[in-house]
Amino acid sequence: MAENDQIRLEIAFEGGQIIGGTVTPAVSKAFHEAMAGSGPVFELEALEGNFLVALGKVVYVKRSARETQIGFGSTS
């Protein structure tokens, strides 16, 4: 995966709230490492803005290499 590729993260929390953001591979890797660690929070730098994530409240994370588009569009 090239460094300029973008990754879509969707993060679900206790209680059902979900946030999503588009991040770089480096940020995605740092978030993955933070989830495996023991820190209380992680500042997620996304294209949509920065999110302060309470790691202990995360239920699951969905990671995809590209955003899904619904509908008709040009392939060129």
Structural overview:
Helices cover 16% and strands 42% of the residues. Strand 1 and strand 2 form a beta hairpin. It is built from one helix and five strands, in the order ββαβββ. It has a single domain, classed as SH3 type barrels (Roll). By secondary structure, the chain is of the alpha+beta class.
The CATH topology comes to SH3 type barrels
Identify the CATH class: Mainly Beta
- % residues in beta strands: 35-45%
Q: What is the β-strand count?
A: 5
**Low-confidence stretches at least 5 residues in length (pLDDT < 50)?**
none
CATH architecture term: Roll
Provide a compact summary of the structure.
With 76 residues, the protein is α+β, with helices and mostly antiparallel strands. It contains 1 helix and 5 strands; from the N terminus they run ββαβββ. The longest helix is centred in the middle third of the chain and has 12 residues, at 25-36.
Write the layout of secondary structure elements.
Layout: E1 7-13, E2 18-23, H1 25-36, E3 41-46, E4 49-54, E5 58-64
Antiparallel strand pairs: 1-2, 1-5, 3-4
